[in-house]
Write a structure and sequence with these properties.
By secondary structure, this protein is an all-alpha fold. The protein has four helices and no strands.
């Protein structure tokens, strides 16, 4: 049984890459866009707290949709 890769946890490196690809330059910009605190984004980027799966899935879907629109 293959698990959908969109449901996998997200590393800080992947978060940083997708964040940049979506045009978010600051933690505050990303936090505001997805409705979380800037400190939550900071903890994810530092690897101190895992990115919640719904957030990882949302960001991957946005990134995928953006790539298809070009």
């Amino acid at each position: 049984m293959n698990q959908d890769p969109r449901l996998a946890s997200m590393s800080p490196e992947e978060l940083r890459r997708i964040m940049r690809a979506l045009g978010f330059r600051t933690q505050a910009q990303l936090a505001s866009a997805i409705g979380v605190s800037r400190s939550a984004v900071s903890l994810w980027l530092e690897g101190k707290v895992g990115v919640p799966r719904p957030v990882a899935m949302l960001l991957r879907m946005l990134h995928s949709a953006q790539r298809r629109s070009y």
